[in-house]
Write a structure and sequence with these properties.
This protein is an alpha+beta fold. The chain has four helices and 16 strands. It folds into two domains: 101 residues, Immunoglobulins (Immunoglobulin-like, Sandwich); 91 residues, no CATH class. A hairpin with a 2-residue loop joins strand 2 and strand 3. It is elongated.
Amino acid sequence: MPREPKVVDIDPVSRAPLYRRLLVLLLLLVAGAGMWSAYTRSRIGPPAPAEATEVQSSVSSQGDSLEVAVRWQLAVDSVRVAPESVRVEVGLSDGHQASVSTQPAGHTSDTLRVAAPSPKQTATGYSCVAPIHRGQLRRESCTPWQFVLPAADTMPHPPRDTAGQSPRTAATRTPQVSRIVIQPGGLQVDPDPDGRCARWQREHPGRSVWLEVNQKAIPDCTGVNGKPMVAQFCAFAVLDDGRRVKTENSSNNPYCERLFRDWASERVS
């Protein structure tokens, strides 16, 4: 005899509300982002300090010292952070003398002093800037510079002794050179380590490197500090009667003419 079929009631499994599923998904995403951040940090390491760039120097003579004004920039981006401070060093390349200072990270310039060279000598120096990050000195950026202090080679001629001469002879004697003066008294020039300016001069004989004498030169003769790699000096003379005159080498030169007018108008020391 066949059995009668039975009806079995099955309760359907209820689904979790939508907001609960979204919450679980959000928690998984946050956990994944945290793990990825930790992974990338372990590979990249801590943020690096900003590097000093565009280090340049302007050098001037101040008595028996050279005043070196240094300026720089700090390269700060998404992976480089500003340091706590900056160390600035200016020195002579022979290593005998250096001046050091520390500036806050927000500063981009400083001025230090070193000894000036002797007459007819060239001081060869450097300016270096290094960030200080977490108490440690980081890689420094350096730029070389030079400063020329000229002097005359001509020995001054002493005045002639007019004792015993007639008044007419003494009055008509030829004035003698008492001393030679070189102008300007000193100039900064940029180094030419690759011989770029010298090569340009050889390839362009008869052409001037100057756009504005001692201020601006052609690109091939302009160095890392924006200064010309060459310098021009003018020689003037003081006679034993007190007059100031141009020498033959400084005549018919507009630049020397301008310097001579300024120098001749100064009070005699």
